[in-house]
Hints:
Layout: H1 2-28, H2 31-34, E1 39-42, E2 46-49, E3 72-76, H3 78-81, H4 91-99, E4 103-107, H5 113-122, E5 131-135, H6 141-151, H7 154-161
Parallel strand pairs: 3-4, 3-5
Antiparallel strand pairs: 1-2
Helix pairs in contact: 5-7
Amino acid sequence: MKLLKNLLVLAVSLVFSLFFAELVxxxxxxxxxxxxxxxxxxxxxxxxxxxxxxxxDEWGFRNFxxxxxxxxxxxxxxxxxxxxxxxxxxxxxxLAKIRGDTVYNMGLGGYxxxxxxxxxxxxxxxxxxxxxxxxxxLGNDFFDVYNSVRFNSPLELIRKAxxx
Length: 164
């Protein structure tokens, strides 16, 4: 009987400890830095993040919120997203601090120049930016264009990129 009581106390204390640790993590850490967002298929982008998941904004980008307008829009791949950095340490977030402007981060890993054009023509334009910065990464963006054309009809890709 004593062993059962000790096991019950141990189980309750473990559950309570995990619950308390989760509560502290949600207060101390930014959700965009530790929650997994939901990925959804996209006809053009291949994959995108579902809005309001994993600490991402309503369009599914790594921002605290989607503003009505943004002075600067940054479009790119994982380097712009800030894949190995906390959200406030990504280069678009640092640029916002330095400039004191509204900067909107539209980066996501796996995107390339054709996706950048599509995002610029469909979403970035809605923010009426004064400046659009494309984070072109020489490490893989040429390869991304090659794969986009290799695995898709080039004319269909161009048509979709210019659609609104």
